[in-house]
Structure formats: C-alpha cells, structure tokens
TrEMBL record:
Residues 1-25 form the signal peptide. Its EC number is 3.2.1.21. It catalyses: Hydrolysis of terminal, non-reducing beta-D-glucosyl residues with release of beta-D-glucose. Belongs to the glycosyl hydrolase 3 family. One of its GO terms (molecular function) is beta-glucosidase activity. It comes from Altericroceibacterium endophyticum. GO terms for biological process: glucan catabolic process. This is beta-glucosidase. Keywords: Glycosidase, Hydrolase, Signal. It comes from the Bacteria.
C-alpha cells in the first residue's frame, strides 16, 4: 500500500555548480553532512530527468522504482550498506548478473576509435536495458562540456530502467603523456602531469596526492566516477613496456606513492568520500616480473616467474593502498610460476582465477573487503588469431582474450571459477549469458552473486549517484583546461626530470636573446619563447637539443597490443634517428643536450661519450624540457630504477628482482643538481 504521507513531485533538473578548483556537481551528497553510522543527516541535492521526487516530512527522495512510495534503497538517511542490501533483494537474477559486467562505452557506430566524440546511445540502451549492465569504461576524447553531456545521456538511459540504478563510468589514466589502447588515454582538456614514474623520480608524496585530488575533480566534472589506476606493480624487468605507469622499483616508495594516489582520488585517507573517485589499484600481483618483458595482454607473454621469495616485494608494494582503504583491486593477467604462498604451491592459473591470491592472501590475510574487478577479457576464448596472428590475419580487438591458465575450460566455467576465487566484476564483458548459464547450471550460487552485487551497489550509494548522477557541462568546461592547474603540472614535469650528466656545467643554458639552437625531436615554439633562435643547420648553431624516447623494437607486429607496445632492446644503435642526430651534432662540434623520455630504462653507454648533457624525463612537454635546460625550473629528480650497462646485463638479470643487473651504468637514485 502506498504511503499517504508521501507526495510525488516532479523536480526540474538541478546541478551543483563548482568552481575551477572545487569538486564538481557529481554527487548529491557533497552538500550534505555525512554520518557514517546512519547515512546522510541533511537534504542532499537531487537531480532527476524522468523519475518523480517524493516528499516526506520536508525531505525529498527520488522515486527510482516509480511506485509512489519511499522504498528503503531510495532513502538517503540509511547507510550505503543498508540501501545496497535492500536493493539487491529487489533485483532479478538477470539484473544482478548484469551488475557483474563492466562493459565498454563505444563511440558512434559501435566504434572503439578514440577520435569519435559521442557514444553509440542505441548500443548503450541495449546494454543497460537488455543486459542490465551498470558499469562502463569510457575511452571517449571530447571537449569537457561535450564529454559531460555524453555521460549525462548515459545516466539518463539508466534512470529510465525499472529500478533506476545509476551507471558507474570508469576510465584508464587520462592525465599523462602515453596513449596505449587498453592502458591509457590522453587529450580532452585533462591536466597533463608526468607519468607515475616521474612522481617516483621526484619522490614527494604530497605532490602525488595534490595531482590525484586535481585529477579527481576533473574526472567527476565530466561524469567519471572510477579510475582504473594506479599501478602498484614492481618494475622489476627492464624491458617490460608498462613500467612508466608504475612508481618504480622500491616497494616502500611504491607503497607510499600508491597510498597518496588513492587518498587523493578517493578524497580521504579513510576511504571513499561522496565527491571521490573509486580507485582500482592494479595489478595484483607479480605483473612486472615477465620474462623478456613480454606483456601478458598477449598470448606470448602469459607467464611471470617469481622464484623463491621474490613475490614478497611485489606484494609489499600494495600495502599503502590497503592503508588508504582502497575501494578496488584489479588482479594481474599472467600465470605466476615457481611461487609458493603460505606453504602451498600456487595453482597455475592467472590471478583472476586464483583463490589463493584473491581470497586467502587478499581478502582473508589482508582483510580486504572492497571490489575485485578483473582485468579485461579474462573469460573470452583465445582463438588461433589470438595465439598466432599473421600478416594476412592480424589480431584486432575482436580476437583479444586473456584467459591464461583456464583456456581449456568453458566460458561459463571461467566465470564460475573467477567468482569462487573472489572476483566481483568482469572487465570488458557485456554479454551476461555465460554467467547466467553458470548460475542456472549450478556452478555458482545466487547468494555468491548477491555478495558481489552488494559491494558494487555500496560504492554507488557512497558516491551519491542515486541522488544525483548528472554533472554540469558548463562547470566541466571551467574545470578542465584550467591554466593555473596546467602551469602547476608543467612545474612538476620539469622538476621530475633527472640530470644524469652535465659536462662542463653546460646547464643551465642562459636563454640569451639570439642564442642559436639546433633542435631534433621537438617543436620550435618553446625554444623561441625562451629567447633562443632556432636554426636548421647544425653548423650555424651554438648548441643542440635532441629529444627522444628509450630505444625499442616491435617484435610482435601482428598482435594487437604487441604492435603498440615497446619491447626488445634498450640500447642506442646506428640507424636510430635520434642517435644519428646526436652523432651529427657531435661532428659539428656542438655542445649537446640529450633529453630522453625514460619510458623504459635506456642503455646510454654510447650516448654519454657524445652528449654533454643527459636529461631524463618521465613525461614532459617541450616547455618543461626547456625550463629545465635554462634553469627556470631546476630538475630535482633521481632515477627510480637503474639504467643497465649493456643488453647482456639485461638478459642476465632476474625479471622478478629489482635493480639487479651487473654493474649498472647509472644506479637507482642517480641524479645531479646544478
């Protein structure tokens, strides 16, 4: 029977407005006092586009199930946990199974192309209404206001469902320099900071937290509520292509930096706040210990070796995340070999299917109660093109699968095994049928599904999305692209650089008007803005600046990720364009600055005898590099990993052990001052 004391009202769309440095409008509860024992104590801001609003004793509530009565999950005065339990009990099996899928918001026409600036809303409608998906990753790159509008459209579709469950929208990192599909994004007005490895080089925990708090406001401004970052992986194999997204090689340093990152994104040291962003720390565990550095997105990189007690350091790197009460953990891809954990040999399946790693080690030993989100496509079959693509049949996204260690069991059995291991949600999946079959066939009990659904719903309630899932596009446009924020980010880019060599005290180079510079690998604008005259001929220059990245090879050109990742050698050789430019500058008698992006630990033995200055960066604009060269901002970084002396030393080191190559050219911690 309907409550006669409730009056159904239509509420016009209401947004909180935020300043350039304030949290934007996303959560209803940002303007309410929070009582951790009994939910919210004051009226939050509500926003509805289709559902009515109920009034009760002067308070307002969204009628999300459209029954003209105040259902417990609609009552923001209850705790998030109470609301989650109530809503879970009202959901059908199909609705609950859809909650366990984390799909992709594709661009117009079903495209994964990041240049598309709008979603395929018809496809979104199908996934939300037919498959009951309520978590999505976005890879859209669009101006801030447009981005916010697109995410609002997704929330509007979700509002119209039977229970009005809002969508959680996630993203890979957006505030750095590298763009790798499935790992990171760039563009769209987000402030641009060094890669996480740059924060490790600077070594200032407060700077990491400052960055994360700014990024949090930018994410929430456009309607993103979850970040699939940071990486707490130990960068123990020098050839591994994903180490720039880590905080280096020291477990204690990584732990501290990850803790600061989590606190900044989630909004506090004690877990998620209403204006926070769910942080998913990855990859639990051992991902950085891959032989030859071959990444486990690929079939040829599906193993990691951690003999003896080498896994201990990889585990310790996650400690700071747990101290900050991280909401999400993502298991790693590779099957871990040669590992004994708690006296037992580790089962030879990927961590997303490994009960010893997820339940025994993570949930029981560390008392972790948050969300476990699998990495992408771990339940999909790896076909022949997935295993061995060719020039005639290269691997594309439809052929990507990462079901390592469980390729010989059925898809529904993989879902069941993942859930029994401890996974709550499966990344990159939008088809609920295999999981539904697993429940109907008795491989998974519905009660196990319920536990994951409650965890996932609790986070939505904590963020206030059930009160207000919408954002203000005009506020997003003000927050993203803020000049003061970007200026601060560029200062950090410059300071995080590592000066490895400064022969003859060439740096700082005075930015005298008319001083002539020959450039390779960078634009002319920043040099000219600093007062230099750019010349085309080395013979006419006073000095040279050569920008490059660490050497690499494309060893697996027909694999989707292998074709995009930096693999193989780390040493410079004749024929490498930047190395040849350095030789040209040397032949012209020019003092030279060799500015290198250390996305991997480059071998510089045949560089230091030709360059006067070697300046390493971990993501820096041309302006930030020029600022470090001129002394406008002094480089203060120290190497967060060692730079090996030779490829032979790299090949002989242990992929699971950090900084263990023989006689490194630059040991970890190297860095000069001027």
């Amino acid at each position: 029977m309907k409550n006669k004391n409730l009056t159904a009202l239509k509420l016009s769309l209401t947004f909180s407005v935020c300043s350039a440095l304030a949290a934007c409008a996303a959560p209803a509860s940002t303007q309410a006092a929070l009582d951790t024992s009994s939910g919210l104590a004051e009226q939050p801001v509500l926003s509805s586009r289709s559902k009515a609003v109920l009034s009760d004793e002067g308070m307002r509530f969204r009628d999300l199930d459209s029954d003209d009565a105040l259902t417990p999950y609609e009552d923001w005065r209850l705790t998030p946990e109470e609301r989650a339990r109530d809503l879970t009990a009202r959901m059908t099996l199909e609705e609950k199974v859809g909650m366990l899928l984390h799909a992709s918001l594709r661009g117009a026409g079903g495209s994964f192309d990041r240049s598309v600036d709008s979603y395929d809303l018809g496809l979104v409608d199908q996934m939300v209404n037919r498959n009951h998906v309520s978590s999505f990753i976005t890879r859209l790159t669009a101006p801030a206001a447009k981005f916010a509008e697109e995410n609002n459209k997704v929330q509007e579709i979700a509002e119209n469902t039977r229970l009005g469950i809002p969508v959680t929208i996630s993203s890979d990192p957006r505030n750095h320099f590298q763009y790798v599909p499935g790992a990171s994004n760039v563009g769209g007005g987000f402030s641009q900071w060094p890669e996480p490895m740059g924060f490790a080089a600077l070594g200032e925990r407060n700077v990491v937290r400052e960055f994360a708090a700014i990024a949090r406001r930018e994410y929430r401004a456009v309607g993103i509520q979850m970040t699939l970052s940071p990486q707490a992986d130990l960068a123990s194999e020098p050839r591994w292509p994903r180490q720039s997204g880590t905080f280096g090689t020291g477990p204690a340093m990584i732990s501290a930096m990850v803790g600061a990152y989590v606190a900044g994104f989630q909004g506090s040291d004690d877990g998620l706040t209403p204006d926070g962003v769910i942080t998913v720390v990855k990859h639990w565990v051992g991902y950085g210990a891959q032989p030859e550095g071959f990444d486990a997105h690929n079939y040829y990189g599906r193993f990691a070796d951690l003999p003896g007690r080498s896994i201990d350091a990889h585990l310790a790197a996650f400690d700071g995340a747990f101290e900050a009460h991280v909401v999400g953990i993502m298991p790693a891809y590779p099957v871990l070999r040669h590992v004994t954990l708690n006296g037992e040999e580790l089962e030879p399946v990927a961590p997303g299917f490994n009960r010893q790693l997820l339940t025994d080690e993570l949930r029981d030993k560390r008392n972790y109660q948050g969300i476990i989100l699998s990495d992408w496509l771990v339940t999909r079959d790896c076909n022949e093109i997935c295993r061995a693509p060719t020039k005639e049949h290269p691997q594309d996204l439809s052929d990507v699968a990462t079901s390592w260690g469980v390729t010989d069991i059925s898809e529904e059995a993989r879902f069941a095994m993942g859930l029994q291991a401890g996974v709550d949600q499966f990344g990159g999946i939008d088809d609920p049928e295999p999981l539904l079959r697993a429940v109907r066939d008795g491989l998974v009990e519905e009660g196990r599904i319920d536990r994951s659904v409650e965890r996932l719903l609790t986070s939505k309630f904590e963020l206030g999305l059930f009160e207000n899932p919408y954002v203000d596009p005009s506020a997003a446009a003000r927050i993203l692209g803020d000049a003061d924020v970007q200026s601060r980010a560029e200062i950090v880019q410059a300071k995080a650089q590592v000066m490895l060599q400064n022969n003859g005290q060439l740096l700082p180079v005075a930015a005298q008007s008319g001083r002539k510079v020959w450039l390779y690998g960078m634009g002319q604008e920043a040099a000219r803005a600093a007062g230099f005259t750019v010349v085309d001929n080395p013979a006419d220059a006073d000095f040279a600046i050569i920008r490059t990245e660490a050497p690499f090879e494309t060893l697996h050109p027909y694999h989707f990720f292998g074709s995009r990742q930096h693999e193989g050698r780390l040493d410079f050789r004749p024929g490498d364009a930047a190395y040849d430019a350095l030789i040209e500058a040397k032949a012209a008698g020019l003092p030279s600055v060799f500015a290198i992006f250390l996305d991997r630990p480059a071998i510089l033995g045949n560089v230091i005898d030709k360059a006067d200055v070697v300046l390493g960066n971990f993501g820096a604009s041309d302006k930030a590099v020029i600022d470090a060269i001129t002394g406008r901002i002094r480089p203060e970084g120290h190497l967060p990993f060692e730079l090996p002396s030779s490829m032979t030393a790299v090949e002989n080191q242990d992929p699971a052990v950090v900084n263990d190559s023989r006689m490194p050219l630059f040991p970890v911690g190297s860095g000069l001052q001027y």
